[in-house]
Amino acid sequence: MKKVMGLSRTYHDNSPTALITVESLITSSSGLLIYVALVDLLVANFMGPKLQGSVRLMASYVAMFLGASCMSLMAK
């Protein structure tokens, strides 16, 4: 318990080290969310038998990239 209390005395919310650490953790977790969304969830839909060999597959890719582009612009 003493170590935790000692850490709370030395931790400052606005210090550059704390801000860099927190922002690094936030960006890595958002990167993992993007990976899971694009690789694990969308692959199952795009590789299904209904979309293979159809025009809907190309339309799905275009819609996905347009959506990702819009989300990137909103984030910027």
From TrEMBL:
Q: Its principal location?
A: membrane
Localization per record: Membrane
Q: Which UniProt keywords apply?
A: Membrane, Transmembrane, Transmembrane helix
Q: Name one GO cellular component term.
A: membrane
Q: Which GO terms label this protein's molecular function in UniProt? A: metal ion transmembrane transporter activity
Give me the segments passing through the membrane: 20-43, 55-75
Q: Name one Pfam family in it.
A: Zip
Q: Does the keyword Ion transport apply?
A: no
Protein name, per record: Uncharacterized protein
Lipid bilayer topology: Multi-pass membrane protein
